[in-house]
Specification:
three-stranded antiparallel beta sheet, single chain, 0% helix, mainly beta
Length: 67
């Protein structure tokens, strides 16, 4: 979803019930075992903080419009 030709915003849901809206492809970094998700971006797309989530805890990913 991050590398799609046309990026579509999506929501990452995790096993603890958290949800992270991803409105920009630059706001998520995928590593071997985890996602680093930028949160509360300003108008320039700069994240105010980062949450790290183990990939094993991602329960689903949905288009933002579908949520």
């Amino acid at each position: 979803m991050l590398t799609a030709k046309e990026f579509k915003p999506f929501v990452i849901h995790t096993s603890d019930g958290a949800r992270y809206e991803t409105t920009n492809h630059d706001m998520v970094l995928v590593t071997r075992n985890s996602l680093h998700i930028g949160l509360a971006s300003d108008p320039d797309g700069i994240a105010e903080r980062i949450v790290r989530c183990a990939i094993i805890h991602v329960t689903r990913i949905e288009d933002l419009q579908a949520v």
